[in-house]
Amino acid sequence: MAEENIKKRIITLRSEIRKHNYQYHVLNTPLISDHEYDRLMRELQALESEHPELITPDSPTQRVGGEAAAGFVRVSHPVPILSLSSAHSDDEVRAWFDRIAKLDKRVRDSTFTVEPKLDGLTVVLHYKNGVFTLGTTRGDGEVGEDITSSLKTVRSLPLHIPVIASGPKPPARLVVRGEAIIYLEDFKKLNRELEVAGERTYVNPRNTASGALRQLDPSLSASRPIRLLCYDIVDSDGPVPQEQWEALVYLKALGFPVPSDITLESDLDGTLARYQEWGERRDSLPYEVDGIVVKLNDLPLARELGVVGKDPRGAIAYKFPAQVVTTHLDDIGLNVGRTGVVTPYAILEPVEVGGVTVRQATLHNFDFIHEKDIRIGDRVLIKRAGDVIPYVIGPVVDARTGEEVPFRIPEHCPSCGESLERVEGEVAIYCVNAACPAQLVRNIEHFASRGAMDIEGLGIKVAHMLVEGQLVNDVADLYKLDEEALSGLEGFADKRAQNLVESIQASGSQPLSRLLTALGIRNVGEAAAGELASQFRNLDRLSEAVLEELEEVEGIGPKVAKTITDWFAQASNRRIIKKLREAEVWPELSVAEDRGPARILADLTFVLTGTLPSLTRNEAKDLILRHGGKVTGNVSRRTDYLVAGESPGSKLARAQELNVPVIDETQLKALIE
Ligand code: IVH
Questions:
Q1: How far is the CA of 345 from the centre of ligand 1 (A)?
Q2: Which residues contact 254 (CB under 8 A, 6 or more apart)?
Q3: Which of 102, 105, 110, 632 registers the highest number of CB atoms within 10 A of its CB?
Q4: Are residues 441 and 473 in the same domain?
């Protein structure tokens, strides 16, 4: 192909792929099969790898966690991996019931299971003689992609069943279906960490899970908090339960994670009542659920009823109302975070989603606006799910009038007007002015927050007033505030001023680890702060530490070590340290508090699981730390002992698999005596 034609083909492919991405992810109405989509993507990848000079950053192939499936081994499913038809009202569910009851009158006396419809990535898991041998995606229902290595990094996935030795013995061949998901809490934490590290944040849990598992490099999946919930036995060569309810009980007994709160209903009215309940709980569930799944409990009957296309007649998804709406993008606002990261947010024409009025939504980062070509004045799709901050999915291109204005990346900080900088290798744009008032407000808010110095009565509003009133120029100035200074602020009658001064003064005796967290050094979270505190014992010693010393600390890599030395090298930060010492906010770890003279557990790494008879988790951890040992969260080949109590989790199975010695509380204490 001539150069010109190649270029043209690439442009056509990109626009086709974008259209299908939009149809699939946004509109939920794919126009082509996964297979056809993969073909387009592979063609584009092939052309781009032959002509790397034609690769543009907005090409669909460059998307992190993209849907590209090239490079995976394709695997035929043992039986078709079916989909589900949907209903959106009680009437539609009743109509479904009447339809199948007409086909077979046994349906009238049937019972149903009601399960959450999990919004994740379907996975098909194969076990041979109890050993996990193969895991695939659903693909087109006939052929999936082999993602075994990525799935092996998912901790809730049993690598061997039964997980508990006393559990039922599975048939020699067992194929189980489940959903890979990310819990909302984990998703928020992941995005917070990425944001702190100046990296690209993710749009939603579903795409993050799907993108992470469909990576050829399993270490990428390992770094994402993916979990599994199972709900179906797809195939087996031995006896398995013939009722859906029993099948779920059985899967659980084998050690598979199964969604909680599944119910068995004796009639359709009960089933519809459950829908209401799930709907009310929807926003407080730990994961995203887009409806319920109603299934005939009698599995042979369900099988006899057959399928319509790819949808089994014996089950139906009863969907919740959409959490996606469209509205007008009035403007794009800019937020300055405490590390100086400037992030864009959408200012919207107010719109109601799920009973809440949304006026603002996150736009993630500037690359996102560019990639999605979001313009001011666009109609945009907004999603609000659970308590995740509402976010913009993308523009409704068809609704454009031509009046929309492309967004220009700002060059100056909206707060202090200084130039913004882009750090190489990061998507974030920073205001590097240490005296930027917006950053100072955020810094104070963080300094006073619960996990840090825990200063009651000092939230973002008060922080704002303090900065605006020029009462503080850095966090150390907080300790100079007295009632008189505060009394000039709006709403600060005597008592409130006195209370704030008292809680600020009280915070001065927080331990070093909290002070370190409070200083807000990039990449230094609570865990790292704890390790640094016990290693260096006061701020002076830490400020003098060189890279090599820092890298010796558990959990501190070269990148974090560098941010720490950079932080202490800044004159403004050195001034803060000096002022804190003058204000006697100077926590030190005494040698006695250090890991103690008896370092009998030195160089040993422990993992804790289950409930111990007399020690709490923290007490056991302290005991180990005080004797020089280390405690980590996960069992690996480097673990020396797993300390197991009652109801141990999957860590026990993992330890047994890796031949890591398992001990109980008594044996732990015996090691120390
Ligand atoms: S059962 C014959 N149960 O929803 C079995 N599916 O829209 C058919 N899903 O692709 C599936 N939670 O990935 C079933 N409790 C659940 C589910 C569930 C989520 C997904 C599944 C399927 C999609 C259908």
A1: 34
A2: 158, 161, 162, 163, 167, 168, 170
A3: 110
A4: yes
Identify whether residues 570 and 659 lie together within a single domain: no
Is residue 117 part of the annotated active site? The answer reads yes
Does the CB atom of residue 231 touch ligand 1 within 6 A? yes
Residue 627 DSSP one-character state: T
> Tell me: the pLDDT tens digits for 52-80?
888 876 677 765 333 334 578 899 999 99
pTM score, two decimals? Answer: 0.57
83 Cβ inside 6 Å of ligand 1? yes
Helix (H) or strand (E) holding 351: strand 341-353
- Residue nearest atom 17 of ligand 1, based on CA coordinates: 117
Strand 662-663 relative to strand 641-644, pairing? parallel
Q: Could you tell me if 295 and 249 lie in one domain?
A: yes
Does some domain include residue 421?
no
Q: How would residue 324 be classed by pLDDT, with cut points 50, 70 and 90?
A: confident
User: Tens digit of pLDDT for each residue in 374-394?
Assistant: 999 999 999 887 667 899 999
pLDDT at 237 over 80: yes
* 166 plus 302 within the same structural domain: yes
Which residue's CA lies nearest to atom 13 of ligand 1? 122
Q: Indicate whether 347 and 299 sit together in one domain.
A: no
Same-domain check for residues 310 and 366: no
Plot region of 162 (φ>0 → left; ψ -120 to 50 → alpha; else → beta) = beta
* pLDDT tens string 434-458: 779 999 999 999 999 998 999 999 9
Q: Tell me what pLDDT residue 214 has.
A: 86
Confirm or reject: Cβ of 315 under 6 Å from ligand 1.
yes
Residues 309 and 342 placed together within one structural domain of the fold: no
Confidence class of residue 24 from pLDDT cuts 50, 70 and 90? low
Q: How far is the CA of 117 from the centre of ligand 1 (A)?
A: 6
Establish whether residue 278 lines the binding site of ligand 1, counting it when its CB lies within 6 angstroms of any ligand atom: no
Q: How far is the CA of 380 from the centre of ligand 1 (A)?
A: 29
**Final residue belonging to a domain, choices 480, 507, 534:** 507
Whether 85 lines ligand 1, by a CB cut-off of 6 Å, is no
Q: Which of 58-62, 547-551, 575-579 has the lowest mean pLDDT?
A: 58-62
Structure tokens at 264: 């068995």
Q: In a mutational test of the pocket of ligand 1, which residue from 28, 84, 177 has the highest number of ligand atoms less than 8 Å from its CB? A: 84
The catalytically annotated residue of 8, 19, 105, 117 is 117
Tell how far the Cα of 123 is from the centroid of ligand 1, in angstroms. 10
Residue 426 lies in a domain: no
What is the predicted pLDDT for the residue at 67?
37
- CATH code assigned at 523: 1.10.150.20
Pairing mode, strands 112-118 and 263-265: antiparallel
Q: Is the CB of residue 654 below 6 angstroms from any atom belonging to ligand 1? A: no
More confident residue, 189 or 23: 189
Concatenate the DSSP letters of all residues of 19-58 into one string. Answer: HHHIIIIISS--SS-HHHHHHHHHHHHHHHHH-GGG--TT
Q: What does residue 270 show for φ and ψ, rounded to 5 degrees?
A: -60, -40
Contact yes or no for 441/460 (Cβ under 8 A): yes
pLDDT digits (tens, 9 = 90+) for 587-642: 987 644 444 445 778 778 888 899 899 988 778 887 887 787 777 777 888 889 99
